[in-house]
Every structure is written in structure tokens, then in C-alpha cells.
Design brief:
Largest sheet: 8 strands, mixed
Number of domains: 3
Number of strands: 20
Strand content: 5-15%
Number of helices: 26
CATH topology of the largest domain: TIM Barrel
Radius of gyration: 27 Å
CATH architecture of the largest domain: Alpha-Beta Barrel
Helix content: 40-55%
CATH superfamily of the largest domain: Glycosidases
Shape: globular
Length: about 675
């Protein structure tokens, strides 16, 4: 293939050149190495594929999906056609068929070469083909001459071998179509692990043929049959994604005990938990029958789930039922177990042996880390990089989730700033760093439904994917946001509804399809962060999630973009067009309340948001006044400034569990009016 060597510019992934070169490439994750050539490859109805793969069918199915995706994102009626390699627009070659059961250590690298005449994708096995096809799809865009991919040479491989998303289908039930479309999203951004959280206090979500009371009595009828699970497993494998099941124990087990109270440390009866939080029920570590039960159950699930890793949870055990049980207290004394931490370590050790007996590697949250823990286990750190670094220092493999909790509703920049090998982990030696396998984003399901789950995962999950795939020095935040916006639109072609579901949710709450004014408000508010929502009111599994907070995005891009304009204004770097854009937004927000109040008052769901609408109008008025002072080049009167600052402080408090996130940016404008 001709490489156009005179026209090739090397894309160096560094702080200085990243943003400049990415004006041509809106890729996410950003590849490890890119060379940009000249010219472009036309994508039209003559598009054909040549496939040369020693494969089990995954590469061919990936190519077929890619052509289908290409047809959707271009609107060109394409069908999958194989052609001779010399004639094909895209020639794909992989050297090996890959492992029958996907492994952590498999080579996921690929090389993609695009010239004005053809594209060539080569990889050691189908995993690289799957990843390389996603990159090719991201390259294709509408250009003046038609749809085309730019001439480019990409050599790519992941930074970490474990790049996952934890999907909780227990607290709120998430059916098959939700799981599948989010697997599609993971494939698109080169994630390779779906951590499937299948048991919880609020539901047991997988069929057990050996212990049918688990799903029959602990699920409200919402569970995956084993046939459905196998369908998900094949679906994920085709997309280069391993599925790691989690069955939490000894805590978070209330749903287990509805059908099997004999496993519990305290007598029943038990009911499925309907509230959120940390609950006391836990398994009895002193009862040998518990381990016999788990041996049979884990054996059944180990046969169903082929991946080498098996997650047993282990987090947030209160120990209260253990303290109240004389038999367990006697057991602790007889086994010289000083406290409940030691008792849980005993339980974890017994469970690990069962998991190993069934030829699996145990994964647990960082509470399972104990001096006696066997080195084979993997620690998933939800409490921070301290426990991650501790695990790696002591020779345990570890993955990071702290900083990647998508349900905490933090902005993409927050997730982007968290790196498995920085902060507390930055002091690890090169040998210790090898124990850090990567990370996982987490989507806990207290406040999600099948309708809004995609908006809680995407597009921010693409940012986590980049942090775990791309070189460590890919850190330019402005570039990330620009590319994330492009990626978000692209992900919509997969059927993810993170963007398309937004206005329907607003329309449902408003009772009318005319939601233009409501959208103006929704665009500048964000849900409260972390666990503030559960402290605001008594939520249960049956509480409708149909309010403005459930439609509002975790991060207001509108507010962020306004903040960028404000920062330029206060720094004296804004041009006239940017000043006008900021003023236009403020004018729109000031006038919106007049149109929105009737909409809010006509909906019992939205009445609680009237104060936010009024506050937005006042905040916008303050911002316009501040701009007027700044435009005149003079300082505002001290009394005016002090009054506005006091007011802006009051609107920082959440209302209806929402934050008015443009207010801090207006505060910057007010602060700037101070006499120099």
C-alpha cells in the first residue's frame, strides 16, 4: 500500500500538538500512534470488503456490523459485499483466530492504513479487527466531495488490558435490550469487560436451575434465564467483550434470603428490600451448610459464565447480625478471629477456595483485601487509589473504579482526571504497576430506568474508555470535550437513547410536546452529586423516576460552554462575537421564565421547578448587568456587587435536587466588576 511519505505528518500525542492535530480527527479513544496523510478515501455504494481471517466468525460478523453501521451513519444503502483484496475498498486480515474463551492477556492491537484508493486493517486476531473497525467508522464523515475517511496510518493498542463497565440490573431491573445496546456502546469505544451485577438486596436477577427459589422468590419475576444469559455472552463475545458476573456476598444478600433464609446470620423471614442503602442481612460465615450451598451455586454459575474471573462482591458488610448471634460469636472465639473484619476474611478465604475449585479467579471489592488473601485474587478498588496502590504493592492484581462512578453524576472532566497510575498509585515501581490491570466505570441503578440509563452512562463512559485505552499523556480537556460531543452523536447510530430520549422525557413530564422553554431550563441544571439525592427524600424501588431531575443531564454542556465564554471575558481575551454569544445566552435565560411558568404550573410533576426557573431569570439579569458594567470599563457600585454576590450564594443550594449550574459563572462576572 502506498504511504504518501512526503505528505505524512506524524501525530505526536503530547500536550503541545494534540489539540491542533485533532482538528482533523475526532477519534475517541485517541489511538496510540497516528500519522496523517493527504487525500481521502471515498465511501460510496461501491464500498466492498475483503476478509482474510483465521477466525471463528467474529471478524466476519464485525465487518457485517460495520457495513450496517456505515449505512446508517451515511444514509447510503450499503450491503455487506466481499471482494478480492486487490479490488476491495477495505481489506481486513487477521493472523490468528483468537482464544475460544477471550482472555485478559490477548493481543488487542491493530494497524489501520487509509489511502485515497483503499483501506487496509491488519491485526493479530479478531479483537484487533473489532477495535480497528470502530476507528474506521469514526473516521468516515460528510465532506465537500461526499462521505470519506482521511488518509491516515494508525498503529494502536490499549494501555490497560481491563477496560470495563459495571452494569447493575438489580436495584432497578434492566431488560435484555438495555444490556445489549450498552454492550454496543462499549464495543464502539473499545471497552472489553462487562461486569454484570446480578444479585443485590433488591433483586436476584439470574435463573438458577439448582436453586430456583433464588430467582423465583427474589426477583419479582424480573430475571435473565440461562438461555438469555448465554445470548448476552455470545453477543458480548462477538464485540470483543468479556462478561464477568458478580454475586455479592456475604452482604447485600437480602434477595438471596427470601427463598433461602437458612443462609442468613439472623432468622427470617425476609422480603426483597425496596429502599436504598446499606442493609444488615448477611450470610452466616460459621455455618458449613452455607459453603456447601455456595459450592453448588458457584459451580452452576461457573459453568454458565465462561470467563476466567468470577466476582463475589464482599463490600459494605455491617456485621450487626454477626454481633447479635451467639453461635457466630462462639465461632469467632474458637477460630481466634479477633473481629468481624477477620471473620469476613475467613469467609472470603473459604469462598475463594470454592471459586478456585471451579477453575475461576476470584474478584472482590477492596474490603476482601486481607494479609491472608491468596495472591491469585483481583481487588476492585471503589474506595480510592490508596487501596489500589496497597493491593499492587502487596502483589495483588487490581482494577480502579473510584473516580469512575457514573451514577455520582460528576462531569466528564472529573472522570478524565482519574488515572489508575496517578495520585496515590504514582509511587508504584514499574514492577508494581504491572499489577494494575486497568479500571471499570460503575452504573449503580438506584435512580435509573430503561429510559434514562443511557444518558447516565453516555457519553461520559467514552471518556473513561479513553483514559483506560489511550496513552497516559492524552489529557487535553478541551480536546476531550470537543471529541466527546462528536462521539456522542455517533453513538446515537447504535440505538443508544442518551440524546434521543431527552426531549420525550421532558414532554412526558410537561404533558405536552412543546417543551422548548422547559428544555432551556433543563439544559442549565444538573442533578445533585454522589449520595445527596437519597438524603433529600425517601426513595424506594417503586418511586416514579419521571421528574426533571431524571431527565436533566449529569453534566450541563450548555453551562460549561457558557463558562468558557465567561472565563475569556474576565481574562480580557474574548472577541466581540464571544461577548455577544454570552449576552445572547443571558438574554434567553432572562426571558424564558415568562414562557415556562405556565408549563410548570400545568404539570404536577414540574411545579417543584418553578423556583429554579425564576432564579435563572434573576441570575441572567445579574449577568447582563455585570456585562454592562464591564463593557463601560467601570466598576460596579459596591452595594450592588455585594447584593448580587449574596443572592448568587443563595441559589447555590439545590432545589428539587437540582443545581443551577450557570450561577457560579455569573458570579465570576460580578467579581470582575470590582474596582481595579
Amino acid at each position: 500500500m502506498r504511504l504518501l511519505s512526503n505528505a505524512v505528518a506524524v501525530l505526536c500525542l503530547s500536550f503541545g500538538t494534540l489539540a491542533q492535530t485533532q482538528t482533523e480527527l475526532d477519534l475517541m479513544p485517541m489511538p496510540a500512534s497516528v500519522q496523517i496523510g493527504s487525500g481521502q478515501l471515498a465511501v460510496d455504494q461501491a464500498f466492498t470488503v475483503a476478509l482474510d481471517c483465521k477466525d471463528d466468525g467474529r471478524a466476519q460478523r464485525a465487518a457485517q456490523r460495520a457495513v450496517d453501521r456505515l449505512s446508517k451513519q451515511t444514509g447510503i444503502p450499503l450491503t455487506y459485499k466481499e471482494a478480492d483484496a486487490a479490488q476491495a475498498k477495505l481489506a481486513i486480515r487477521c493472523e490468528n483466530s483468537g482464544e475460544k474463551i477471550q482472555k485478559l492477556e490477548e493481543d488487542e492491537s491493530y494497524k489501520l492504513e487509509v489511502t485515497p484508493t483503499a483501506a487496509k486493517l491488519t491485526a493479530p486476531n479478531p479483537l484487533g479487527v473489532i477495535h480497528g473497525l470502530q476507528t474506521f467508522l469514526q473516521l468516515v464523515k460528510a465532506r465537500p466531495e461526499g462521505f470519506a475517511a482521511p488518509a491516515v496510518v494508525i498503529d494502536d493498542k490499549p494501555r490497560f488490558p481491563w477496560r470495563g463497565t459495571m452494569l447493575d440490573v438489580c436495584r432497578h431491573w434492566m431488560p435484555m435490550e438495555v444490556v445489549k445496546r450498552n454492550i454496543d456502546g462499549m464495543e464502539a469505544v473499545k471497552m472489553n469487560v462487562m461486569h454484570w451485577h446480578l444479585s443485590e438486596d433488591q433483586g436476584f436477577r439470574i435463573e438458577s436451575k439448582k436453586f430456583p427459589k433464588l430467582h423465583e422468590m427474589g426477583s419479582d419475576g424480573n430475571y435473565f434465564t440461562q438461555a438469555q444469559a448465554k445470548e448476552v455472552l455470545q453477543y458480548a463475545r462477538d464485540r470483543g467483550i468479556r462478561v464477568v458476573p458478580e454475586f455479592d456476598m456475604p452482604g447485600h444478600t437480602t434477595a438471596w434470603f427470601v427463598g433461602h433464609p437458612e443462609l442468613a446470620a439472623a432468622p427470617g423471614p425476609y422480603q426483597i428490600e425496596r429502599k436504598w442503602g446499606i442493609f444488615d442481612p448477611s450470610m452466616d460465615p460459621s455455618n458449613e451448610e452455607v459453603y456447601k450451598f455456595l459450592d453448588k451455586f458457584i459451580g452452576e454459575m461457573a459453568e454458565l459464565f465462561p470467563d476466567a474471573f468470577f466476582h463475589v462482591g464482599g463490600d459494605e458488610v455491617t456485621g450487626k447480625p454477626w454481633d447479635a448471634n451467639p453461635k457466630i460469636q462462639e465461632f469467632k472465639r474458637a477460630h481466634n478471629l479477633a473481629d468481624n473484619h477477620a471473620l469476613q476474611a475467613y469467609f472470603s478465604e473459604r469462598v475463594q477456595k470454592i471459586v478456585a475449585k471451579h477453575k475461576k479467579i476470584m474478584v472482590g471489592w477492596d474490603e476482601v483485601l486481607h494479609p491472608a488473601s491468596p495472591k491469585e485474587i483481583v481487588i476492585q478498588s471503589w474506595r480510592g487509589q490508596e487501596s489500589l496502590a496497597e493491593a499492587a504493592t502487596r502483589g495483588y492484581r487490581a482494577i480502579l473504579s473510584r473516580g469512575y462512578y457514573l451514577d455520582h453524576q460528576y462531569p466528564a472532566s472529573y472522570h478524565y482526571a482519574n488515572d489508575p497510575l496517578e495520585n496515590k498509585a504514582s509511587g508504584l515501581t514499574p514492577d508494581q504497576q504491572k499489577f494494575v490491570l486497568g479500571g471499570e466505570s460503575c452504573m449503580w441503578a438506584e435512580y435509573i430506568t430503561p429510559m434514562n440509563i443511557d444518558s447516565r452512562i453516555w457519553p461520559r463512559n467514552a471518556v473513561v474508555a479513553e483514559r483506560l485505552w489511550s496513552p497516559q499523556n492524552v489529557k487535553d480537556v478541551e480536546s476531550m470535550y470537543r471529541r466527546m460531543a462528536v462521539t456522542s452523536k455517533w453513538l446515537g447510530w447504535l440505538g443508544l437513547n442518551h440524546e434521543s430520549g431527552y426531549e420525550p422525557m421532558l414532554a412526558r413530564a410537561a404533558g405536552t410536546p412543546n417543551v422548548a422553554s422547559l428544555k432551556v431550563l433543563a439544559d442549565v441544571v444538573e442533578p445533585v452529586k454522589e449520595y445527596s439525592r437519597e438524603q433529600a427524600r425517601g426513595y424506594t424501588q417503586f418511586t416514579p423516576l419521571n421528574r426533571l431531575i431524571d431527565a436533566a443531564r449529569p453534566e450541563s454542556i450548555t453551562a460549561r460552554e457558557f463558562g468558557v465564554l465567561v472565563d475569556k471575558i474576565v481574562a480580557g481575551q474574548a472577541n466581540p462575537e464571544e461577548k455577544m454569544a454570552a449576552r445572547h445566552s443571558l438574554l434567553m435565560w432572562r426571558e424564558n421564565d415568562k414562557a415556562l411558568q405556565p408549563v410548570l404550573q400545568n404539570s404536577f410533576i414540574l411545579k417543584e421547578n418553578a423556583q429554579h426557573s425564576q432564579a435563572l431569570a434573576v441570575v441572567a439579569t445579574v449577568g447582563l448587568q455585570a456585562l454592562d458594567y464591564l463593557d463601560k470599563g467601570g466598576a460596579a457600585p459596591a452595594m450592588w456587587r455585594n447584593d448580587q454576590i449574596a443572592y448568587l450564594e443563595t441559589v447555590k443550594a439545590p432545589k428539587a435536587e437540582l443545581l443551577l449550574v450557570v450561577a457560579p459563572h455569573v458570579r465570576k462576572l460580578v467579581d470582575k466588576t470590582t474596582a481595579q
